[in-house]
Amino acid sequence: MSSAIIVIPCFNEEKRLEILQFRKYGITHRNHHFLFVNDGSSDRTGIILDELKEFDPDAFDVLHLPRNQGKAEAVRQGILQAMHADVDYAGFWDADLATPLEMISEFTAQLDQTPELSMVIGSRVKLLGRQIERQQLRHYLGRVFATAASIVLKLPIYDSQCGAKMFRVTPETKTLFTTRFLTNWIFDVELLARARQLEKFFQCSSLEETVYELPLTKWMDVAGSKVKPHDFLKAFFELCSIYWNYLRPSIKEPFTQLSETPVTEEIRRAA
Fold first, then answer.
1. Considering only the top CATH level, what class is 1-97?
2. Which reaction equation describes what this protein catalyses (predicted)?
3. Would the N or C end of the chain have less CB density within 10 A of its end CB?
4. In the chain, what are the domain boundaries?
5. How far apart are CA 238 and CA 127, in angstroms?
6. d(CA 103, CA 108)
7. What are phi and psi of 156, to 5 degrees?
8. pTM for the full model?
């Protein structure tokens, strides 16, 4: 049975962490493990996470960052640690469990069934028979942004910003996380832009063949989200930055030039 580590970025999540749900899932899914990244929280988040690890150290681990660095960097550091463990898949999930933990098995099953896939990303598509509950304003703003991201990436993606994603552990996917992200609000789009660069410079398989959007059966907005409507304006500025730094035709070198790591060299040798 395939194994996975799920990274949970946490910043001042004391009041939103569903500890009992994590405990229950950890007991019933011993091949799935959680790495909580405490992103310099100033409340009791760190204490709660340490208690969870003490409760079941085989299922839960904690990475404490000394200061708040933002979700993008918390996810990046967590994924890098997860990918150096002996597991098949590594992913990240929002701490508020807007996407239920039970969906993890569907993500791993999709990767199990389709070996050519490198990543599976959750997609909040409101269809009959599915329970997708989003605030109306955020939904429409999200649709506008998703369309813009799709145009910039030249990828027919429906939902780039869902906080549930899983990756097959390979040299290519490790490379996506070797350097700090330029963006914070839309680092999910930046991940796909980096994958586009790998495709361009190292002849990796195309995203259309290796990325799968998995329609979620359940997702709901959870009170206390740190994303506000005006942050969508920041997201469009960050989207411009992604285009300029990764996707404009005149770029001559890939983002991996920023950090010559053993993983990067392994990609080059494979190419």
1. alpha beta
2. a di-trans,poly-cis-dolichyl phosphate + UDP-alpha-D-glucose = a di-trans,poly-cis-dolichyl beta-D-glucosyl phosphate + UDP
3. N
4. 1-97, 101-271
5. 30
6. 9
7. -75, 65
8. 0.91
